[in-house]
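Input.
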Amino acid sequence: MLSTEEFAALAERVSQEWGNRHLDEVLARRAEVDDQLAHIAGLAKRNADHYDQIDELTAEGQFLDGVIATQTRKAKAARNRQEYGSLAVRASNLESGDGGGVGAPAFIRRVRSGDDTESPAQVIQRMGNPWAGEGDDSAAGLIARAHAALEGLSGRLTDGGAEKLAGLLAERSPGPGLAEVRTEEHVRRSAALILAATSPFYESAFRHVLRDPLAFRSGLGALRLSDDERAAFAAVEIARAALFEDTSTTGGGWMLPLVLDDTILLTNSGSANPWRRVCKTVSTTAKTWNGVTSAGVSAHWYAEGAITSDDTPVLAQLQVTPHMEEAWAFASYEQIGDSNLGDQIPKLMDDAFSRLESAAFATGAGDGSNAPWGAITRATVDGSTGLVSVANAVSVFSLLNNIPVRFRDPGSGARPYWACNIAILNALRGVTAFTAATASIVDDSTSPPRMFGIPVVESSDMDGVNTTGGHKNLLLFDANSFLIVERLGTRLLYEPMVKGTGGILPAREGGWLAYRRVGSDAVAATALRVHNNV
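Output.
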């Protein structure tokens, strides 16, 4: 696996060499990378140099995908700016010449440094105003305006977050693999919600709520908002009610602005959750995510004049249900009044969600338990039942031998990983590949470590016991075949008066409740294989 320095150097090289090239050239190079990976995958024997090439080509492909996504968004933004240019000829958009214009350009502060966040006026002066009420509200117009908003806020959403949201603006998600199919009307409503929830006026209004939630719970807080902030709040609620089936508007409940929602900000590489870090993650605006799977088309050899067989693939529906997760935090009135605790609530809630999800993605019991399916729960149990620390790595080799090649070979589009508890990883460090060997099967020269060229991720929620008795403690899986689905939008409610013991007298405390929906499932059980110490 590439070292941190090699990874950074490759990222810099790709950025310098391909960052300013024409999109067609970048796409051509991306195709060449795929061809080279396929060539290596077709070799009967592969040596260490081949695996190094796989690492470098796979990483280059990921960097090129980032360049492609960025150039695609820029091209869309350029088209949008051209369309917005036509608005400049409107009399209502021209300065009168009497000194009543907007004046000098706003001073733009850094947008990634906490309190230096731009004001709504500064955002609009920098990138225009796709959130304007007089914009085009047709399906095409809303989608174009939503893309313009994502492009303008890409510095805060991150490229991965903007790309995830952009996937909701098409009837079929871009990129290879499974895709959710949506209707044109559903895409239009998704665009309306993304546009509303990225508005700088909505973020500004939401920060007022965090500073004094009690005032907004009583309704008086709205008096503190500007007309633009009140309109932004209304736009979010209208768009949310039109898109989602659950249209309840419980008092005190607010949707997090997308620039503050960590399901958007913390993409795979930025999350401490090992499953979110490596697995395929998608967003949806529906109650369930619906995709189609197939084992593929079969091919045959035929004699001259023989009748061709029917090789139509068998299609199966994959439905992933996002389940409700909630986090509750409370503090005394003194703590709320004497600190900026309210501003920290979104981050605190996300930390709680991350720990909850990490356990569910590993061992969750699925829909019947109102929780996501876990990778261990969905995995095929391997036939080898000995301890993973046994000499010659028999149990480890069994997993490697029995998982289908399409789920462990990067040349076939797979992203294979081992997953285990740190206790099991330490036990494996004492195992050699064969009797006379002196080196461990775990290669700690890279980060993360590898076994037989495949990265190992640590999951503290997996079983760490290495004795007989039914302990499923080592998993080999294709990260592209374990799907994490998020329903767009995290909601935050404020309770101004928490009751004490008995639920009668006030405890002089206020509390916040955050909730959102997340689900997960395996695309195919054979894509995940787990060892079981029987």
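The two ends are 33 Å apart (CA to CA).
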